[in-house]
Amino acid sequence: MHRRIFRSFAVLVLASVAVLAVAFGLLFMNRSQNHEKEAIREKAHFIAGLLNHGSFESYNALRVGDTRITLISPRGVTLYDSYAGADITVDRGDRTEFIRAAAHGNGEAVRPSDTFGADTFYYAVRLADGRVLRLSRTLNNLNDVFSAMLPMLTAVTLAIVCAAYFLTSRLTRRIVKPLADADFERTDEMPYEEIVPFMQKINAQRQEITGQIHKLKNRAETIDAIISNMREGMVMVNAKGNVMTVNQSALDIFGIPKKKLVVDKNIRHICRDAEFMRCVELCLAGEYTEIAVPQIIKNTPSGERSYNAILSPVKRGGVNDGAIVFFLDVTEQRKAEAQRREFTANVSHELKTPLTSVSAMSEMMANGMVKDGDTAVFADRISRQINRLALVIDDIIRLSEFDEGKAARDFTLFDIFDMAQTIIEAFKDKAKEKNVSISLEGYPVQINANSRLIEELLYNLIDNGIKYNRENGSVTLYIREDGERCILSVSDTGIGIPPEHQPRVFERFYRVDASRSKQTGGTGLGLSIVKHIAEHHGGKISLESAENKGTKIEITLAKR
Ligand code: ADP
User: Residues 480-505: pLDDT tens digits?
Assistant: First the structure.
């Protein structure tokens, strides 16, 4: 700011000095020329007086300073010229001053002298004898005036420029200081009222910018929070395939300890799989791709996990500018798919076996291959197989109801202890057949539940307790409450479940010993239905079992 003000000042000073110098120069020149002319006139009349009285010794005595003296005859012939270099043969009768002097007594003229070139003042006086005395002198011109003025002009200019420098720096400081001290947020306290509108505008813009920055920051933080808290792995790459952003989940999936190990490096530093890299190239060329990367399998405490990679191209201004890659955990999905495949195969198998034997037996009967006495036996076998089929189909329907979330929710309040007693009564004969005793312990507990499903749950557990028991064994049903929960357990002293099978007995169609299960009319779906019923009532199920000692299944249900 100081420089600019000083520059403007300096230009102003120099321009003023130049204009003043020219004006004064012209004025001085004019004044000095007038002085010179006046002096020459006086001198001319003085010398003319002397010449008229003949009171001088020689023409040379007329020499005065640098004034040229010429004496011209009435005819214009030069009689004497004090300028040594003058050509006295030149006829000067045509000179204006001569003509005027001859006619009127005196005359003058200014013209560039033939002899000296510069402007010369000529003054002529007619003498008493008719001769003409002419005095001439080269007048001071502008150059001479300037040359005379130059040292002083330079000194004055320098002095003014120095003063201007000093003044402008003080002035700048005085202008700037209040601005530096001002609180620009308070436009009512501005040091100069001229800047108030600017400051108001600047303040409004600043507020807008602050708001926008705040918004941008919030948005960036939100995006950051989303990216870093996503369960899915996310990697963003530029057009060259170099990693720009990678989130923690992606690092965890690939076991990369630190972000900086992969940022700015090619994405192959994250996943080297050839198929995956082919997809990255396709995606960078603008194609959306999805791939189940076989290599992307991670061992975690909860077991092996599988991932799918989804690659979407990023376009900016219609040009492919990179890609976003998501790694989705598809473990559960794949597990569910595998379970569905297994279930379908199991269902087909479970239904096909009894149907095949029913079909074979009925064909034999139809072809008369069965003796009359055996017909009843065959009919009984067919009926048992069909009952079994009906049981399996019933269980499958029940499970599919749970799968589709269509299981009945008509909950009523009833006493589960009462219900257990009735069921045990119904099992008395079956238990007797197997020499197994059943007992009920605990106390009445009111629960709000679907009574049909709870009945089925108790039925399945007690049935298993009897089925997988040994001679003279026992089954104990214990019902109690714990705060807001009802706890029921079914313990038996049966064959138990080997530890390696325990995690799987709740799976559909899973049987520890398939032939024993089938012999006893089991479908392999009972415990899986029990688990669904417990979960349907917000309950939990736990299993304790020891081979040849017995099994205890405990279920915790919400009372309300
Ligand atoms: P199933 O119809 O075969 O009984 P479940 O789903 O009820 O099917 O049981 C799955 C498997 O778990 C059974 O085949 C059996 O091997 C085992 N199991 C269930 N309950 C008991 C128990 N109380 N004692 C021993 N093994 C059992």
Answer: 999 999 999 999 999 999 999 999 99
